[in-house]
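Input chain follows. Return C-alpha coordinates only.
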Amino acid sequence: MKRPALSFRARLTLEWTIAFGALLALACLAMYQVARAKAYREVDALVRTLAATEAGALELDGGAVRLHPFAEGALVGGEHAAKVVQVLAQNRAVVAQSPWLGAPVPLLGPDAHRRALLGETPLLTLVAGGRIARVTALLVSRDGVRWVLVAGFTTARVEESLAGFALLFVLVWLAGLVVTGGLGFLLASRALAPIGDITARARTIASGDIAVRLPVFHPGDEIGRMTILLNEMLDRLHVMLEASVRFAADAAHELRSPLTAMQGEIDVALKRERSPAEYHETLETLRDRAAEMRHVIEDLLLLSRAEEHRLPAVVSEVPLGKLLAESFERAAPLAARRRVTLDSSRVPELYVYADPRLFGRVLDNVLRNAILYNRDGGSVTFEAAWERIRGEGPAPGFVRIDVRDTGVGISEAEREKVFERFYRADPSRSRRTGGTGLGLPICREILRLLKGEIRILESSPKGTTFEIRVPGARFAVA
Protein backbone atom coordinates (compact mmCIF):
# COMPACT_ATOMS: atom_id res chain seq x y z
CA MET A 1 0.00 0.00 0.00
CA LYS A 2 1.40 3.36 -1.01
CA ARG A 3 2.07 5.64 1.91
CA PRO A 4 0.43 9.07 1.69
CA ALA A 5 2.83 11.86 0.81
CA LEU A 6 3.59 14.42 3.48
CA SER A 7 2.47 17.98 2.93
CA PHE A 8 5.09 20.62 2.21
CA ARG A 9 4.47 22.15 5.63
CA ALA A 10 4.99 18.77 7.32
CA ARG A 11 8.16 18.09 5.31
CA LEU A 12 9.49 21.54 6.10
CA THR A 13 8.76 21.08 9.82
CA LEU A 14 10.27 17.59 9.83
CA GLU A 15 13.43 18.64 8.02
CA TRP A 16 13.84 21.66 10.30
CA THR A 17 13.32 19.51 13.40
CA ILE A 18 15.84 16.91 12.21
CA ALA A 19 18.42 19.58 11.39
CA PHE A 20 17.89 21.38 14.70
CA GLY A 21 17.89 18.06 16.58
CA ALA A 22 21.22 17.08 15.03
CA LEU A 23 22.70 20.48 15.87
CA LEU A 24 21.34 20.37 19.44
CA ALA A 25 22.65 16.79 19.89
CA LEU A 26 26.13 17.90 18.80
CA ALA A 27 25.93 20.87 21.19
CA CYS A 28 24.84 18.66 24.11
CA LEU A 29 27.54 16.11 23.33
CA ALA A 30 30.16 18.85 23.19
CA MET A 31 28.99 20.30 26.52
CA TYR A 32 29.01 16.82 28.09
CA GLN A 33 32.55 16.22 26.90
CA VAL A 34 33.65 19.60 28.24
CA ALA A 35 31.97 18.88 31.62
CA ARG A 36 33.56 15.40 31.76
CA ALA A 37 37.01 16.74 30.92
CA LYS A 38 36.70 19.50 33.52
CA ALA A 39 35.47 17.03 36.17
CA TYR A 40 38.41 14.74 35.59
CA ARG A 41 40.84 17.65 35.62
CA GLU A 42 39.54 18.44 39.12
CA VAL A 43 39.81 14.75 40.10
CA ASP A 44 43.37 14.57 38.76
CA ALA A 45 44.32 17.67 40.77
CA LEU A 46 42.89 16.10 43.92
CA VAL A 47 44.61 12.79 43.16
CA ARG A 48 48.00 14.52 42.85
CA THR A 49 47.36 16.45 46.06
CA LEU A 50 46.43 13.22 47.87
CA ALA A 51 49.49 11.40 46.51
CA ALA A 52 51.81 14.17 47.66
CA THR A 53 50.18 14.20 51.10
CA GLU A 54 50.41 10.41 51.45
CA ALA A 55 54.04 10.41 50.30
CA GLY A 56 54.94 12.94 52.98
CA ALA A 57 53.04 11.01 55.66
CA LEU A 58 54.59 7.60 55.06
CA GLU A 59 56.21 6.23 58.25
CA LEU A 60 58.75 3.44 58.85
CA ASP A 61 58.01 1.22 61.78
CA GLY A 62 60.88 -1.22 62.41
CA GLY A 63 61.67 -1.31 58.69
CA ALA A 64 58.00 -1.70 57.76
CA VAL A 65 55.97 1.00 55.97
CA ARG A 66 52.99 2.37 57.83
CA LEU A 67 50.28 4.37 55.98
CA HIS A 68 48.72 7.56 57.20
CA PRO A 69 45.49 6.51 58.99
CA PHE A 70 42.13 7.56 57.45
CA ALA A 71 39.57 8.60 60.12
CA GLU A 72 36.49 7.57 58.10
CA GLY A 73 34.31 7.60 61.22
CA ALA A 74 34.88 11.32 61.66
CA LEU A 75 32.97 12.07 58.40
CA VAL A 76 29.41 12.33 59.73
CA GLY A 77 26.40 13.51 57.72
CA GLY A 78 28.00 13.46 54.29
CA GLU A 79 29.42 11.34 51.53
CA HIS A 80 33.03 10.81 50.56
CA ALA A 81 35.02 9.00 47.92
CA ALA A 82 36.92 5.86 48.90
CA LYS A 83 40.64 6.55 49.13
CA VAL A 84 43.00 4.19 47.28
CA VAL A 85 46.56 3.88 48.68
CA GLN A 86 49.08 1.16 47.90
CA VAL A 87 52.87 0.98 48.38
CA LEU A 88 54.85 -1.25 46.02
CA ALA A 89 58.42 -2.36 46.36
CA GLN A 90 60.85 -2.22 43.43
CA ASN A 91 59.86 -5.77 42.51
CA ARG A 92 56.12 -4.74 42.48
CA ALA A 93 55.44 -6.57 45.73
CA VAL A 94 52.72 -4.96 47.83
CA VAL A 95 54.28 -3.42 50.93
CA ALA A 96 51.18 -1.70 52.29
CA GLN A 97 47.71 -0.76 51.11
CA SER A 98 44.30 0.55 52.14
CA PRO A 99 42.49 -2.12 54.19
CA TRP A 100 39.40 -2.25 51.93
CA LEU A 101 41.43 -3.30 48.86
CA GLY A 102 41.43 -6.90 50.01
CA ALA A 103 44.05 -9.25 48.61
CA PRO A 104 47.50 -7.70 48.07
CA VAL A 105 47.42 -7.51 44.30
CA PRO A 106 49.63 -4.81 42.70
CA LEU A 107 47.48 -2.08 41.09
CA LEU A 108 50.19 -0.98 38.66
CA GLY A 109 51.20 -2.96 35.65
CA PRO A 110 54.92 -3.48 34.85
CA ASP A 111 55.11 -0.56 32.44
CA ALA A 112 53.47 1.96 34.82
CA HIS A 113 55.62 0.64 37.71
CA ARG A 114 58.78 1.11 35.65
CA ARG A 115 57.83 4.65 34.67
CA ALA A 116 57.20 5.54 38.31
CA LEU A 117 60.63 4.17 39.31
CA LEU A 118 62.13 6.45 36.63
CA GLY A 119 60.57 9.48 38.36
CA GLU A 120 57.45 9.92 36.23
CA THR A 121 54.02 10.46 37.80
CA PRO A 122 51.55 8.77 35.45
CA LEU A 123 47.80 9.27 35.90
CA LEU A 124 45.83 6.06 35.44
CA THR A 125 42.26 4.79 35.54
CA LEU A 126 42.15 1.25 36.88
CA VAL A 127 40.14 -1.26 38.89
CA ALA A 128 40.91 -1.23 42.63
CA GLY A 129 39.02 -3.61 44.95
CA GLY A 130 36.34 -4.08 42.29
CA ARG A 131 35.80 -0.32 41.81
CA ILE A 132 36.93 2.08 39.10
CA ALA A 133 39.55 4.45 40.51
CA ARG A 134 41.68 7.33 39.30
CA VAL A 135 45.23 7.13 40.69
CA THR A 136 48.75 8.41 40.21
CA ALA A 137 52.11 6.82 41.08
CA LEU A 138 54.99 8.57 42.90
CA LEU A 139 58.54 7.48 43.68
CA VAL A 140 59.18 7.57 47.47
CA SER A 141 62.57 7.03 49.11
CA ARG A 142 63.35 6.40 52.82
CA ASP A 143 66.82 5.60 54.19
CA GLY A 144 68.07 4.54 50.75
CA VAL A 145 65.06 2.29 50.13
CA ARG A 146 62.70 3.18 47.19
CA TRP A 147 59.04 2.43 46.88
CA VAL A 148 56.26 3.33 44.48
CA LEU A 149 53.27 5.00 46.11
CA VAL A 150 49.94 4.52 44.33
CA ALA A 151 47.28 6.96 45.58
CA GLY A 152 43.89 8.15 44.34
CA PHE A 153 40.10 8.00 44.67
CA THR A 154 37.31 5.87 43.36
CA THR A 155 35.35 7.66 40.62
CA ALA A 156 31.87 6.30 41.29
CA ARG A 157 30.62 9.69 42.55
CA VAL A 158 32.10 11.48 39.52
CA GLU A 159 30.53 9.01 37.12
CA GLU A 160 27.16 9.36 38.87
CA SER A 161 27.38 13.15 38.51
CA LEU A 162 28.34 12.81 34.83
CA ALA A 163 25.48 10.36 34.29
CA GLY A 164 23.16 12.98 35.80
CA PHE A 165 24.54 15.54 33.35
CA ALA A 166 24.05 13.11 30.47
CA LEU A 167 20.44 12.50 31.48
CA LEU A 168 19.88 16.25 31.79
CA PHE A 169 21.31 16.80 28.30
CA VAL A 170 19.10 14.04 26.88
CA LEU A 171 16.02 15.63 28.48
CA VAL A 172 17.06 19.05 27.17
CA TRP A 173 17.53 17.52 23.70
CA LEU A 174 14.11 15.86 23.77
CA ALA A 175 12.43 19.02 25.06
CA GLY A 176 14.27 21.01 22.40
CA LEU A 177 12.97 18.68 19.69
CA VAL A 178 9.39 19.02 20.93
CA VAL A 179 9.60 22.81 21.27
CA THR A 180 11.39 23.40 17.98
CA GLY A 181 9.01 21.01 16.20
CA GLY A 182 6.02 22.95 17.53
CA LEU A 183 7.58 26.33 16.77
CA GLY A 184 8.70 25.09 13.36
CA PHE A 185 5.16 23.98 12.57
CA LEU A 186 3.73 27.33 13.65
CA LEU A 187 6.35 29.31 11.72
CA ALA A 188 5.93 27.10 8.65
CA SER A 189 2.17 27.55 8.85
CA ARG A 190 2.58 31.30 9.10
CA ALA A 191 5.14 31.45 6.30
CA LEU A 192 3.05 29.24 4.02
CA ALA A 193 -0.26 30.96 4.76
CA PRO A 194 0.13 33.19 1.65
CA ILE A 195 0.62 30.05 -0.45
CA GLY A 196 -2.77 28.79 0.72
CA ASP A 197 -4.37 32.04 -0.44
CA ILE A 198 -2.40 31.90 -3.69
CA THR A 199 -3.54 28.30 -4.23
CA ALA A 200 -7.17 29.23 -3.66
CA ARG A 201 -6.85 32.13 -6.09
CA ALA A 202 -5.05 29.89 -8.60
CA ARG A 203 -7.93 27.41 -8.36
CA THR A 204 -10.30 30.23 -9.30
CA ILE A 205 -8.08 31.09 -12.28
CA ALA A 206 -7.93 27.43 -13.30
CA SER A 207 -11.72 27.29 -13.29
CA GLY A 208 -11.75 29.81 -16.13
CA ASP A 209 -11.69 33.25 -14.47
CA ILE A 210 -8.39 34.31 -16.02
CA ALA A 211 -8.94 37.97 -15.12
CA VAL A 212 -8.24 37.16 -11.44
CA ARG A 213 -4.67 37.78 -10.21
CA LEU A 214 -2.66 36.19 -7.44
CA PRO A 215 -2.41 38.19 -4.19
CA VAL A 216 0.99 39.76 -3.44
CA PHE A 217 1.58 39.87 0.32
CA HIS A 218 5.26 40.79 0.62
CA PRO A 219 6.70 42.01 -2.69
CA GLY A 220 10.30 41.88 -1.42
CA ASP A 221 10.51 38.22 -0.40
CA GLU A 222 10.82 35.10 -2.56
CA ILE A 223 7.10 34.30 -2.59
CA GLY A 224 6.26 37.92 -3.38
CA ARG A 225 8.70 38.06 -6.30
CA MET A 226 7.44 34.72 -7.58
CA THR A 227 3.83 35.94 -7.34
CA ILE A 228 4.66 39.14 -9.21
CA LEU A 229 6.29 37.14 -12.01
CA LEU A 230 3.31 34.77 -12.15
CA ASN A 231 0.94 37.75 -12.35
CA GLU A 232 3.01 39.18 -15.20
CA MET A 233 2.82 35.82 -16.94
CA LEU A 234 -0.96 35.75 -16.39
CA ASP A 235 -1.21 39.27 -17.81
CA ARG A 236 0.56 38.16 -20.96
CA LEU A 237 -1.56 35.01 -21.20
CA HIS A 238 -4.67 37.13 -20.70
CA VAL A 239 -3.59 39.49 -23.46
CA MET A 240 -2.83 36.56 -25.78
CA LEU A 241 -6.13 34.87 -24.97
CA GLU A 242 -8.12 38.06 -25.45
CA ALA A 243 -6.28 38.70 -28.70
CA SER A 244 -7.12 35.20 -29.89
CA VAL A 245 -10.77 35.58 -28.86
CA ARG A 246 -10.98 38.99 -30.51
CA PHE A 247 -9.29 37.63 -33.61
CA ALA A 248 -11.85 34.83 -33.89
CA ALA A 249 -14.78 37.15 -33.17
CA ASP A 250 -13.55 39.90 -35.47
CA ALA A 251 -12.74 37.48 -38.25
CA ALA A 252 -16.20 35.94 -38.01
CA HIS A 253 -17.80 39.38 -37.94
CA GLU A 254 -15.82 40.93 -40.78
CA LEU A 255 -15.74 37.90 -43.06
CA ARG A 256 -19.45 37.22 -42.77
CA SER A 257 -20.41 40.11 -45.08
CA PRO A 258 -18.02 39.33 -47.96
CA LEU A 259 -18.81 35.61 -47.69
CA THR A 260 -22.54 36.37 -47.79
CA ALA A 261 -22.01 38.65 -50.76
CA MET A 262 -19.92 36.01 -52.54
CA GLN A 263 -22.59 33.39 -51.91
CA GLY A 264 -25.21 35.77 -53.27
CA GLU A 265 -23.16 36.42 -56.42
CA ILE A 266 -22.75 32.68 -56.96
CA ASP A 267 -26.47 31.99 -56.39
CA VAL A 268 -27.45 34.70 -58.87
CA ALA A 269 -24.98 33.37 -61.44
CA LEU A 270 -26.38 29.84 -61.10
CA LYS A 271 -30.06 30.74 -61.54
CA ARG A 272 -29.80 30.67 -65.32
CA GLU A 273 -27.34 30.23 -68.10
CA ARG A 274 -25.24 33.29 -68.66
CA SER A 275 -22.85 34.53 -71.29
CA PRO A 276 -19.07 34.17 -70.88
CA ALA A 277 -18.83 37.91 -70.29
CA GLU A 278 -21.34 37.72 -67.43
CA TYR A 279 -19.48 34.78 -65.87
CA HIS A 280 -16.25 36.72 -66.26
CA GLU A 281 -17.78 39.69 -64.50
CA THR A 282 -19.02 37.46 -61.66
CA LEU A 283 -15.55 35.91 -61.24
CA GLU A 284 -13.98 39.36 -61.09
CA THR A 285 -16.42 40.35 -58.38
CA LEU A 286 -15.63 37.17 -56.45
CA ARG A 287 -11.91 37.86 -56.86
CA ASP A 288 -12.34 41.35 -55.41
CA ARG A 289 -14.30 39.92 -52.48
CA ALA A 290 -11.58 37.30 -51.88
CA ALA A 291 -8.90 39.98 -51.99
CA GLU A 292 -10.87 41.99 -49.44
CA MET A 293 -11.11 38.94 -47.18
CA ARG A 294 -7.39 38.24 -47.54
CA HIS A 295 -6.58 41.84 -46.64
CA VAL A 296 -8.79 41.66 -43.54
CA ILE A 297 -7.21 38.38 -42.42
CA GLU A 298 -3.66 39.70 -42.91
CA ASP A 299 -4.47 42.84 -40.92
CA LEU A 300 -6.06 40.79 -38.15
CA LEU A 301 -3.04 38.49 -37.91
CA LEU A 302 -0.66 41.44 -37.83
CA LEU A 303 -2.71 43.18 -35.13
CA SER A 304 -2.98 40.02 -33.02
CA ARG A 305 0.76 39.36 -33.17
CA ALA A 306 1.47 42.98 -32.23
CA GLU A 307 -0.89 42.83 -29.24
CA GLU A 308 0.70 39.56 -28.09
CA HIS A 309 4.23 41.04 -28.45
CA ARG A 310 5.06 38.31 -30.92
CA LEU A 311 5.73 40.63 -33.84
CA PRO A 312 9.41 40.29 -34.87
CA ALA A 313 11.07 43.70 -35.06
CA VAL A 314 14.65 44.36 -36.19
CA VAL A 315 15.32 47.95 -35.17
CA SER A 316 17.90 49.91 -37.14
CA GLU A 317 18.73 53.50 -38.02
CA VAL A 318 16.68 54.33 -41.13
CA PRO A 319 16.41 57.62 -43.11
CA LEU A 320 12.89 58.98 -42.70
CA GLY A 321 12.95 60.53 -46.19
CA LYS A 322 13.59 57.15 -47.80
CA LEU A 323 10.72 55.48 -45.97
CA LEU A 324 8.36 58.36 -46.74
CA ALA A 325 9.27 58.34 -50.44
CA GLU A 326 8.55 54.62 -50.67
CA SER A 327 5.20 55.11 -48.91
CA PHE A 328 4.28 57.97 -51.27
CA GLU A 329 5.10 55.75 -54.23
CA ARG A 330 2.81 52.98 -52.98
CA ALA A 331 -0.03 55.43 -52.27
CA ALA A 332 0.30 57.34 -55.56
CA PRO A 333 -2.40 55.37 -57.49
CA LEU A 334 -4.98 55.87 -54.72
CA ALA A 335 -4.07 59.56 -54.41
CA ALA A 336 -4.39 59.98 -58.18
CA ARG A 337 -7.90 58.47 -58.18
CA ARG A 338 -8.97 60.89 -55.44
CA ARG A 339 -6.96 63.77 -56.95
CA VAL A 340 -5.23 64.26 -53.56
CA THR A 341 -1.88 66.07 -53.51
CA LEU A 342 0.92 64.56 -51.36
CA ASP A 343 3.52 66.97 -49.93
CA SER A 344 6.67 66.09 -47.92
CA SER A 345 8.71 69.22 -48.63
CA ARG A 346 8.76 70.14 -44.93
CA VAL A 347 10.43 66.89 -43.84
CA PRO A 348 14.13 67.52 -43.11
CA GLU A 349 16.85 64.85 -43.16
CA LEU A 350 16.11 62.83 -40.05
CA TYR A 351 16.67 59.23 -38.95
CA VAL A 352 14.30 56.97 -37.08
CA TYR A 353 15.18 53.95 -34.94
CA ALA A 354 12.65 51.44 -36.18
CA ASP A 355 12.04 48.29 -38.17
CA PRO A 356 11.80 49.60 -41.77
CA ARG A 357 9.09 47.11 -42.75
CA LEU A 358 6.87 47.80 -39.72
CA PHE A 359 7.36 51.56 -39.68
CA GLY A 360 6.71 51.61 -43.42
CA ARG A 361 3.39 49.90 -42.64
CA VAL A 362 2.60 52.71 -40.18
CA LEU A 363 3.31 55.39 -42.78
CA ASP A 364 1.25 53.48 -45.39
CA ASN A 365 -1.75 53.14 -43.09
CA VAL A 366 -1.73 56.77 -41.95
CA LEU A 367 -1.25 58.01 -45.50
CA ARG A 368 -3.99 55.74 -46.87
CA ASN A 369 -6.33 56.85 -44.09
CA ALA A 370 -5.59 60.53 -44.86
CA ILE A 371 -6.36 59.96 -48.56
CA LEU A 372 -9.50 57.89 -48.07
CA TYR A 373 -11.10 60.34 -45.64
CA ASN A 374 -10.02 63.43 -47.58
CA ARG A 375 -11.98 65.65 -49.94
CA ASP A 376 -11.63 65.02 -53.63
CA GLY A 377 -8.90 67.35 -54.83
CA GLY A 378 -7.59 67.83 -51.26
CA SER A 379 -4.04 67.48 -49.92
CA VAL A 380 -1.96 65.52 -47.41
CA THR A 381 1.05 67.30 -45.92
CA PHE A 382 3.87 65.70 -43.91
CA GLU A 383 6.02 67.73 -41.53
CA ALA A 384 8.77 66.39 -39.26
CA ALA A 385 11.06 67.67 -36.51
CA TRP A 386 13.50 66.21 -34.01
CA GLU A 387 12.99 66.63 -30.26
CA ARG A 388 15.97 66.11 -27.96
CA ILE A 389 15.49 64.09 -24.76
CA ARG A 390 18.72 64.90 -22.95
CA GLY A 391 22.22 66.23 -23.47
CA GLU A 392 23.64 68.16 -26.37
CA GLY A 393 24.48 67.34 -29.98
CA PRO A 394 23.23 64.20 -31.67
CA ALA A 395 21.94 62.50 -28.53
CA PRO A 396 18.96 60.22 -29.37
CA GLY A 397 15.57 61.78 -29.00
CA PHE A 398 12.22 61.54 -30.77
CA VAL A 399 11.28 62.27 -34.34
CA ARG A 400 7.88 63.93 -34.47
CA ILE A 401 5.88 63.54 -37.68
CA ASP A 402 2.71 65.56 -38.25
CA VAL A 403 0.33 64.32 -40.99
CA ARG A 404 -2.25 66.95 -42.03
CA ASP A 405 -5.19 66.28 -44.36
CA THR A 406 -8.01 68.44 -45.65
CA GLY A 407 -10.81 66.06 -44.76
CA VAL A 408 -14.04 66.73 -42.92
CA GLY A 409 -12.47 66.20 -39.51
CA ILE A 410 -13.12 63.87 -36.58
CA SER A 411 -15.40 64.78 -33.70
CA GLU A 412 -14.03 64.99 -30.16
CA ALA A 413 -16.00 61.90 -29.11
CA GLU A 414 -14.49 59.80 -31.91
CA ARG A 415 -10.82 60.75 -31.54
CA GLU A 416 -9.94 57.71 -29.43
CA LYS A 417 -12.47 55.39 -31.02
CA VAL A 418 -10.71 55.58 -34.40
CA PHE A 419 -7.85 53.60 -32.81
CA GLU A 420 -10.25 50.75 -31.97
CA ARG A 421 -10.40 47.84 -34.39
CA PHE A 422 -13.14 47.98 -37.04
CA TYR A 423 -14.32 51.41 -35.93
CA ARG A 424 -15.23 53.63 -38.88
CA ALA A 425 -16.22 57.28 -38.55
CA ASP A 426 -18.14 56.92 -41.85
CA PRO A 427 -18.96 53.20 -42.34
CA SER A 428 -20.67 53.58 -45.70
CA ARG A 429 -17.84 55.60 -47.13
CA SER A 430 -15.13 53.31 -45.82
CA ARG A 431 -16.89 50.31 -47.35
CA ARG A 432 -16.90 52.06 -50.73
CA THR A 433 -13.23 53.03 -50.45
CA GLY A 434 -12.08 49.67 -49.14
CA GLY A 435 -11.28 50.59 -45.54
CA THR A 436 -11.31 47.79 -42.97
CA GLY A 437 -11.12 49.81 -39.77
CA LEU A 438 -7.82 48.13 -38.80
CA GLY A 439 -5.25 50.60 -40.13
CA LEU A 440 -5.00 52.96 -37.16
CA PRO A 441 -5.16 50.19 -34.49
CA ILE A 442 -2.27 48.49 -36.30
CA CYS A 443 -0.34 51.79 -36.30
CA ARG A 444 -0.80 52.22 -32.55
CA GLU A 445 0.30 48.64 -31.74
CA ILE A 446 3.35 48.80 -34.01
CA LEU A 447 4.44 52.15 -32.58
CA ARG A 448 3.93 50.81 -29.06
CA LEU A 449 6.30 47.97 -30.00
CA LEU A 450 8.81 50.53 -31.33
CA LYS A 451 8.48 52.64 -28.13
CA GLY A 452 6.63 55.35 -30.01
CA GLU A 453 3.07 56.64 -30.11
CA ILE A 454 0.36 58.07 -32.36
CA ARG A 455 -2.48 60.44 -31.54
CA ILE A 456 -4.81 62.98 -33.08
CA LEU A 457 -3.20 66.36 -32.47
CA GLU A 458 -6.08 68.46 -33.74
CA SER A 459 -9.16 68.10 -35.91
CA SER A 460 -11.78 70.44 -37.37
CA PRO A 461 -14.05 70.67 -40.41
CA LYS A 462 -10.97 71.97 -42.27
CA GLY A 463 -8.96 68.81 -41.69
CA THR A 464 -7.20 66.53 -39.21
CA THR A 465 -3.61 66.35 -37.96
CA PHE A 466 -2.14 63.05 -36.73
CA GLU A 467 1.05 63.19 -34.63
CA ILE A 468 3.51 60.27 -34.78
CA ARG A 469 6.44 60.07 -32.36
CA VAL A 470 9.20 57.50 -32.74
CA PRO A 471 12.79 57.32 -31.40
CA GLY A 472 15.27 58.92 -33.77
CA ALA A 473 18.13 61.36 -34.37
CA ARG A 474 18.88 64.46 -36.41
CA PHE A 475 21.62 62.75 -38.40
CA ALA A 476 23.18 59.32 -38.66
CA VAL A 477 25.21 58.28 -35.60
CA ALA A 478 25.80 54.63 -36.52
